[in-house]
Amino acid sequence: MKKILLRCFAFSIMGCAWVATAEQTSSEKQLCDDYNNDKAIIIIGNTPFEDSEWYADWSSILNSFVIANNEFLHVYRASQLRHTDLKNYSVLFSKKSKQNYLLEEVIEPQSYEYVLLEYTQANIPKHINAFKPDQLNTNLVSKICNL
Questions:
Q1: Strand partners, 73
Q2: Which string of DSSP letters, residue by residue, matches 79-140?
């Protein structure tokens, strides 16, 4: 009887794990692969167009940063992922072996540079260190990947 109960319990756990994985989108699966391989990940929150100087600055700084560092960064948009809850104009940085950072409406390129330098284990100059972004206590990528 105990063996039967243990088997039923084992199958129920495997079934739950399979269901969680099956619900992931292809983008979420790729994100989880990147994360588990300790790649640097950026998730960009929704970015509705605004006809403003601030929006022009924000999008220009972010786009320039991503283009300049595309060989190192794996970029995702919140709209590609079903299990995200990022505010508009936010950028989440995540790497399995490092701290997570959330930049909300940040237009200082030094904040983006800080995270890149930390993720590449480079020395962070004092003038960049002053722009250290807020650390995120919860790991959104870990939640997406059911880790």
A1: 40
A2: GG-TT--PPTTEEEEE-TTS--EEEES---HHHHHHHHHHHTT----HHHHTTPPPBPSS-H
What's the distance, CA 87 to chain centroid? 13
Query: Is there a contact between 7 and 14 (Cβ–Cβ < 8 Å)?
Result: no
pLDDT tens string 134-145: 898 888 898 888
Q: Which residues in the chain land under pLDDT 70?
A: 1-22, 147
Cα distances (Å, whole numbers) of residue 45 to 1, 8, 87, 108, 130: 51, 41, 6, 17, 24
Closest by CA position to 68, among listed 29, 116, 13, 28: 116
Handedness of CA 31, 35, 38, 43 (dihedral sign): positive
Q: Cα separation of 12 and 5, whole Å?
A: 10
Q: Which two tokens stand for residue 37?
A: 């391989």
